[in-house]
């Protein structure tokens, strides 16, 4: 029997087969079904058509109103009302109201709703984030979400896998965001199309759990079905602190089949910026030239973790943002918000001239809390920079790490954080 990848093993276990192979169509049991205030209302509308009457397991559905909350207008309020009413009607345990809600892909792991070996679907493309914890997780459409809520099952075509062999360690002011931007720049936005991006090698151990969340989160920006990391001491420490369930650990076989094996020396990666209008349009910080910016956004499901905020605070401490730059900080969850406050990070941000927001996806999708006007440029720690992503179709978004974003806020131009610290 041919060896299997991590993803293939998880899918096989969840469809009741001893093995699966790339290209095979399967029906699998799911451990969690996720929806937000944009996608879940559509799924709720479709749910009644399945004739199930009730959801398959009230503990295995999560509804997270995070995109337009606190509600920005009447339409957003109606979307959230739809989630609220459905959650109450079906006694869904994992419904997170304003005041408890966070950005979904940071919130679910924090709340212990994700475990190693799980199979998770979410009606949001960045559901692939949970691969950082050794789970198979992927985004689906709202109809598939409805089916998942009704039956506890979802269909999949088993993806082919690309293996990324990581060696070395990251340099100063280089983080997981730089690594994934480097990879997407290398293979393109369709370089892993409907594939699994599997990370391995001695370099993995040097990556923090937040680095891994960021890298798994942006697998979709390479066209991938999922990204996944091995379960090691870093993973187990995070799970022990957050998840009450015992992890189920799957390891890739030595003879697992990969379409490509790509070697990456982490020590060679420089701070990296994705220029408009694709995440693959990358340049190192040494190649960016002079780019004036009007807004900086630090947060999102990609880089709103406490380590991201600490990284930004290290650069901003004792400095002021440029007078023409609007700088917006968005902690990803209420717990992260409190931790940042208690560590004194908010004082640093406010003293620097930045605004601190409640957890929300807001500006990332051009929703609210930081929309761009025509001709404006933003440096953002978010995950997409498509045309009109953060506002006007004639605005521009540059994707970067929290360190680069903070340094750029200070100078008003895309800037190497090392140069700010040396000044």
Describe this protein's structure:
The protein has 14 helices and 18 strands. The chain is α/β, with parallel strands linked by helices. The strands form five sheets. A five-stranded parallel β-sheet has the order 4-3-2-5-6. A five-stranded parallel β-sheet has the order 16-15-14-17-18. A four-stranded parallel β-sheet has the order 10-9-8-11, with helices on one face. Helix 2 (40-47) packs across helix 5, helix 6 (176-187) runs parallel beside helix 7 (209-217) and helix 10 (306-316) crosses helix 12. The longest helix has 16 residues, at 74-89.
In short:
The protein is α/β, with parallel strands linked by helices. The protein contains 14 helices and 18 strands. The protein is 31% helix and 18% strand.
Helix content: 25-40%
Strand content: 15-25%
Distance from N terminus to C terminus (CA atoms, Å) equals 60 Å
Structural class: alpha/beta
Discrete helix count: 14
According to DSSP, the number of beta strands is 18
List low-pLDDT spans. Answer: none
Mean pLDDT: 95
> Biggest sheet, open or closed, and with what strands and sense?
5 strands, parallel
Question: Looking across the biggest beta sheet, what order are the strands in?
Answer: 4-3-2-5-6
Give the radius of gyration: 21 Å
- Based on Cα principal axes, name the global outline: globular
Write the layout of secondary structure elements.
Blueprint: H1 6-15, E1 25-29, E2 32-36, H2 40-47, E3 61-64, H3 74-89, E4 94-95, H4 104-110, E5 119-122, E6 136-139, H5 142-151, E7 153-157, E8 160-167, H6 176-187, E9 195-200, H7 209-217, E10 226-228, H8 233-242, E11 260-265, E12 272-274, E13 282-284, E14 295-299, H9 300-303, H10 306-316, E15 326-330, H11 334-342, H12 345-352, E16 355-356, E17 377-380, E18 396-399, H13 402-411, H14 417-422
Parallel strand pairs: 2-3, 2-5, 3-4, 5-6, 8-9, 8-11, 9-10, 14-15, 14-17, 15-16, 17-18
Antiparallel strand pairs: 1-7, 12-13
Helix pairs in contact: 2-5, 6-7, 10-12, 10-13
């Amino acid at each position: 029997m041919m060896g299997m990848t991590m993803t293939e093993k998880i899918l096989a276990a969840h469809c009741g087969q001893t093995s699966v192979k790339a290209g095979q169509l399967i029906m699998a049991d799911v451990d969690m079904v996720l929806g937000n205030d944009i996608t879940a209302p559509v799924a709720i509308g479709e749910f009644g058509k399945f004739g199930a009457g009730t959801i398959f397991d009230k503990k295995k559905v999560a509804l997270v109103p995070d995109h337009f909350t606190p509600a920005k207008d009447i339409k957003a309020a109606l979307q959230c009302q739809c989630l609220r009413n459905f959650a109450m009607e079906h006694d869904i345990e994992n419904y997170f109201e304003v005041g408890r809600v966070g950005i979904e892909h940071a919130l679910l792991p924090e709340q212990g709703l994700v475990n190693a070996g799980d199979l998770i679907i979410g009606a949001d493309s960045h559901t692939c984030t949970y691969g950082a914890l050794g789970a198979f997780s992927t985004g689906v459409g709202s109809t598939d979400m409805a089916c998942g809520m009704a039956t506890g099952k979802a269909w999949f075509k088993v993806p082919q896998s690309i293996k990324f062999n990581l060696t070395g360690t990251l340099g100063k002011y280089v983080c997981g965001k730089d690594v994934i931007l480097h990879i997407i720049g290398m293979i393109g936005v369709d370089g892993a199309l409907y594939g699994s991006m599997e990370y391995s090698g001695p370099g993995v151990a040097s990556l923090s759990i937040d680095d891994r969340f960021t890298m798994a989160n942006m697998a979709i920006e390479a066209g991938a079905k999922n990204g996944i990391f091995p379960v090691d001491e870093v993973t187990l420490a995070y799970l022990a602190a957050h998840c009450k369930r015992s992890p189920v650990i799957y390891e890739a076989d030595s003879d697992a089949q990969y379409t490509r094996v790509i070697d990456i020396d982490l020590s060679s990666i420089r701070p990296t910026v994705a220029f408009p209008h694709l995440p693959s349009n990358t340049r190192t910080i040494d190649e960016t030239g002079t780019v004036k910016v009007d807004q900086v956004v630090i947060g999102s499901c990609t880089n709103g973790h406490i380590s991201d905020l600490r990284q930004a605070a290290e650069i901003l401490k004792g400095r002021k943002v440029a007078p023409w730059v609007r700088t917006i900080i968005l902690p990803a969850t209420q717990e992260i918000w409190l931790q940042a406050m208690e560590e004194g990070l908010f004082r640093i941000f406010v003293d620097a001239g930045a605004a601190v927001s409640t957890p929300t996806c807001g500006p990332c999708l051009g929703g609210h809390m930081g929309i761009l006007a025509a001709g404006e440029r933003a440096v953002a720690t978010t995950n997409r920079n498509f045309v009109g992503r953060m506002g006007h179709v004639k605005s521009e978004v540059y994707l970067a790490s929290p360190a680069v974003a903070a340094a750029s806020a200070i100078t008003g131009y895309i800037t190497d954080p090392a140069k700010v610290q040396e000044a």
